[in-house]
Amino acid sequence: xxxxxxxxxxxxxxxxxxxxxxxxxxxxxxxxxxxxxxxxxxxxxxxxxxxxxxxxxxxxxxxxxxxxxxxxxxxxxxxxxxxxxxxxxxxxxxxxxxxxxxxxxxxxxxxxxxxxxxxxxxxxxxxxxxxxxxxxxxxxxxxxxxxxxxxxxxxxxxxxxxxxxxxxxxxxxxxxxxxxxxxxxxxxxxxxxxxxx
Length: 197
Prior knowledge:
This protein is an all-alpha fold and 197 residues long. It has helices at 4-33, 41-48, 52-59, 62-81, 89-113, 118-139, 147-161, 163-172, 177-193. It has 2 domains: 1-60, Arc Repressor Mutant, subunit A; 63-197. The protein has 9 helices and no strands. The longest helix is centred in the N-terminal third of the chain and has 30 residues, at 4-33. This is TetR/AcrR family transcriptional regulator. Keywords: DNA-binding, Transcription, Transcription regulation. It comes from Nocardia bovistercoris. Residues 40-59 bind DNA.
């Protein structure tokens, strides 16, 4: 039988987890909506309904909040992207563009700010490595086995599927989502067709 103390400890642990989740959810919304430099710990605290000190207690710094948000966004994106079937170009690109529709604008803003904020640059490196791993999972069977050639074609696929391509098509050229998916899928199909093993 549990004691009152263990119930209290359990309640505190649940409250701590819930508070952390609330802070992360508020921070994620802010980062998706605003430039990196415009999101402050005070704004995160206000949006999550906690004190500035509570945010610091959970994350220590803005870099800690960024890491938490980046991990949450990556987990959400991985779940969506990995639902695609390996080798299915249209399905993979539809999943990728779906993720970009959700976080692409913020992703571009973060990339543009990364040279001024080391904590952000580190997260962008992690995101690029994750994207490359996804490319291997989706299209690796169609890539050359020789390491130098394989890396070259991974670079080409990375360029064809980068968030900046999505931005060019969706924001700059004002293409709709279907056109964007078709263009990116055509780029990937062209790369894979051009590979001679």
